[in-house]
Write a structure and sequence with these properties.
The structure holds 2 protein chains of 2 kinds. In chain A, about 50% of the residues lie in helices and about 15% in strands. Chain A contains 15 helices and 18 strands. In chain A, β5 and β6 form a beta hairpin. Chain B is mainly α. In chain B, about 65% of the residues lie in helices and about 10% in strands. The two termini of chain B are about 25 Å apart. Classes of the chains: A alpha+beta, B mainly alpha. The interface between A and B is medium-sized, with 31 and 27 residues.
Chain lengths: ~575, ~110
């Protein structure tokens, strides 16, 4: 079954099968290209067209209903193809053609072959495109998919989406075309320019028709000038825009792929945190799903776009763009939902206070030191994984977080008092309280030394919801608190009452080992005990300048030796 | 040495001369020219003839006029110009010299 179309060839009405028309059109195009560089080339082609029309007319007069493929082939045979002309006719000097310039070949495009398909016709189309038995591609794809555990299927799907079925005769011709080689690619590029030119010529004609329809008599010269001007301008604009878009697409694609790779690489860090951050499996799935969609959909779309550009495939099925857009929006909505659920999960905050019973030191002097060991469920677990500058450490089943602050206050009684405040956030106050209670933190005292561990543990199965621990040390009047320099290094610190409760000094780097001795000053503030300055005054001064912005007790090296 | 190439070179050389000689005998329509050449066993593609005619016409050796035809649009009938006559005369004498020379040489070679 074939469609018959009517064409006007050199002023004659010719009914012709659409496949035959396609062959004829390509033949005439090849002639046009062949003679284009010759003086009077148009005339030659017109003459040949007239002759072909005459031959067809004879055929029709002899009783044929229409012109078939075979008729066109006969005409091609008697007229000859451009390749044959070279052999036969004397050529003018300027006619230096290379073979590819005028080849009688259909334009090649990548289509899926509906007549040679197993799954979707992709391999059939590839076979037609490269002029290789499709079975080769089928075997290659099967091996690749099996070898890559399914990853190569993405390539197949991209090709599937990007190529339409070759449905009409013209598309089938385009699909089969000639073997792809360098010359053909060059020709394709030339044809592309040619097509663009034609389109603008058509647009030019439309403009002309419009003006004539209005009865406007535009001067021929002006008209010609504008037509050629617009054609030239249009050509340039189209070429620039096209290449810009393609360049842009490639750049974006590159960025997205880099982002994707970064995500995959960083997933090594993200995976152990998953159970800490996400409330449940749904959120984990939502996170990876939305990340995959937000990154993957643009990559897929760009790859399809570039494959289409590279193979010259025309637009594929209509549903693809909306589907991709829809999936991307789903990814966006999921990400937004996830973000809002995180915000909600941090809506309420609460703190619980626990009193640590301090054995009052006999000397009236309490020393604060950093404990050697953290809170860890199973100490024999040697797999440790630290991120954020070791502030979060993950062992087999415990997460240790270094977010401990120390606050010094004046005691109302005559004894040292220590409180442990656990702070956390949550969806509700009750949940926040639960999160706060998940903090595993234990102070310890040995004689007059109070040990504070570097970090606190989160109980198994609990989430990170901005948990933090504040150790409040209340210093009685007349007694002094010695602070080991390592304490300043490890914890955030607050000793001054003029700041509000949320103010904590950043960790301070003290190079020297040693300690400072603090006591309640007459004005109620806690600061370093008034002492004679040590001998190495210079180094202390530099130290002082460096820390002058902090309203904090300074280290006093060599101040006092640790009690044995 | 490619025999096809040599053969086509030979044919190329005489093609213009042959076409001119056909037209010299009287006004001719391209397909008439093809027919006559076929009768003389000098096969030529129509696609080769049209460009040749156009080139000869552009060189003002030929001219044409439109003749109404019974079937369809008018046809181009080619005839020779005075310039063409002169050109033809020169070609003819060259051809005769060449034919004689070739004839003589090939006779000699066949007798050796």
């Amino acid at each position: 079954m074939k469609k018959i179309i009517n064409i006007n060839l050199s002023g004659r009405l010719i009914p012709i099968e659409d496949s035959a028309y396609e062959v004829l059109r390509q033949y005439l195009d090849s002639l046009k290209r062949y003679f284009a560089k010759e003086e009077g080339g148009d005339e030659i082609v017109t003459d040949i067209e007239a002759r072909i029309a005459e031959l067809f007319n004879d055929k029709l007069k002899n009783g044929a209903h229409c012109i078939t493929d075979a008729d066109v082939e006969v005409v091609k045979l008697s007229m000859g193809t451009p390749e044959q002309f070279d052999d036969e006719a004397p050529k003018d000097q300027q006619q230096a053609f290379t073979g590819a310039d005028y080849k009688d070949r259909p334009r090649k495009r990548f289509y899926r072959d509906p007549e040679d398909k197993v799954v979707s016709g992709v391999c059939g189309g590839l076979g037609a495109y490269f002029n290789i038995d499709p079975v080769v591609f089928r075997i290659i794809f099967t091996l690749l998919v099996l070898g890559s555990f399914g990853a190569a299927a993405i390539v197949y799907i991209v090709l599937w989406i990007s190529a339409p079925y070759a449905e009409t005769a013209a598309e089938k011709l385009e699909m089969r075309g000639e073997r792809v080689d360098l010359n053909n690619i060059r020709t394709t590029v030339q044809e592309e320019m040619h097509n663009v030119k034609n389109q603008f010529a058509k647009a030019g004609n439309d403009i002309r028709n419009f003006s004539q329809g209005r009865g406007r008599q535009i001067g021929n010269d002006v008209e010609r000038f504008f037509l050629s001007f617009f054609r030239g301008l249009g050509k340039v604009i189209v070429a620039i825009t096209k290449s810009f878009f393609i360049f842009f697409a490639v750049v974006i694609l590159f960025c997205l792929i880099v982002a994707g790779i970064a995500l995959i690489v960083s997933s090594a860090a993200i995976l152990p945190l998953q159970h800490l951050v996400f409330a449940n499996t749904t959120q984990v799935v939502m996170f990876w799903g939305s990340a995959g969609l937000l990154l993957g959909i643009p990559v897929l779309a760009l790859v399809i776009f570039l494959v289409r550009k590279a193979t010259g495939a025309r637009q594929s099925a209509r549903f693809i763009a909306p589907t991709l857009a829809f999936l991307w929006i789903i990814g966006l909505v999921t990400a937004a939902g996830l973000a809002s659920s995180f915000v909600k999960a941090l809506r309420r905050s609460t703190m619980t206070t626990e009193v640590f019973n301090v054995a009052q030191p006999k000397s009236g002097k309490l020393l604060v030191k950093v404990a050697d060991k953290d809170y860890i469920y199973h100490e024999d677990e040697d797999v440790e994984f630290g991120i954020f500058d070791e502030d979060v450490r993950i062992t087999g089943d415990t997460t240790v977080i270094n977010d401990i602050r120390i606050r010094l206050e004046k005691s109302n009684t005559d004894s040292f008092q220590v409180e442990v405040i656990r702070y956390a956030k949550g969806r509700t106050t009750a949940e926040a309280r639960m999160n706060a209670e998940s903090i595993a933190f234990q102070l310890s005292q040995q004689d007059s030394i109070l040990y504070i561990p570097r970090g606190f543990g989160l109980r198994e199965g609990s989430r990170y919801r901005v948990q933090r621990v504040i150790v409040v040390i209340k210093v009685p009047k007349g007694k002094s608190l010695d602070v080991d320099n390592e304490v300043y290094r490890v914890f955030s610190f607050r000793s001054h009452s003029k700041y509000d409760d949320d103010y904590f000094q950043d960790r301070i780097w003290h190079d020297e080992d040693g300690r400072s001795s603090l006591e309640v000053a007459p004005d109620g503030e806690i600061r370093e005990k008034d002492k004679p300055l040590p001998a190495n005054k210079d180094s202390l001064e530099t130290n002082y300048k460096y820390h002058s912005s902090f309203n904090i007790a300074l280290p006093a090296p060599n101040s006092e030796s640790e009690p044995a | 040495m490619n025999i096809d190439n040599t053969q086509s070179q030979m044919r190329k050389g005489v093609l213009e001369f042959c076409i001119l000689s056909i037209i010299k005998q009287g006004e001719a329509y391209p397909s008439d020219i093809i027919e006559k050449m076929k009768e003389a066993k000098l096969d030529i593609l129509e696609g080769t003839l049209y460009p040749l005619l156009t080139r000869l016409k552009n060189a003002e050796l030929l001219t044409y006029r439109w003749v109404e035809s019974s079937s369809g649009p008018p046809r181009k009938y080619f005839s020779m110009t005075e310039k063409g006559e002169v050109f033809y005369k020169e070609l003819e004498s060259t051809w005769n010299e060449l034919a004689n020379a070739v004839h003589q040489l090939t006779q000699n070679s066949s007798t050796i």
